[in-house]
Structure formats: C-alpha cells, structure tokens
Write a structure and sequence with these properties.
The chain is mainly alpha-helical. About 45% of the residues lie in helices and about 5% in strands. The termini are far apart.
Amino acid sequence: MRSYLYGAEVERDYHCPLYKERLVESLERINPNLPQEALNEAVWQLQNYESRNLLHQNIKFTKYLQQGIEVNYVCDGKKNPHLSN
C-alpha cells in the first residue's frame, strides 16, 4: 500500500531537489539490465545539466522525464548494446 503526504510535510533538501536514494532505486527497478555505470551516468546528468536560463532548464528536465536520458556504456565489448544502430 502506498502512503501519501501533503507536499509541505515532506522533508526535503532545498539544495538538492532530487531524492537521490529513491531515484537510484527507481532507475535500478526500471532498467534492470543496465550496468551500474550507466545508472550512475544518468543520475549525474540529472544533477549536472546546465542551460541558459530557468525556462531552458525546465524544458530539458521535462524532456529527460518524457523521453529518458541517453547514457554511454560498454558491456561485453559493445558500446550501448541495448540501442539499435
């Protein structure tokens, strides 16, 4: 069963808006076949993307949420084996 909290009651770090622990858990659950290296890169991209202004940052973050984040990694000597060429 899920529990829900009123937004103002959620404990948060205003300097790091991502709940990194939950983010990593979710990425691992959603992408069970990706190596940890790829998941770490996705988290890094979410934490370190920069853009010209707030509007462009919001657009880029929304794109990440809707379309995913492309990461580069090597598995068994093949680059991004899950992506088609």
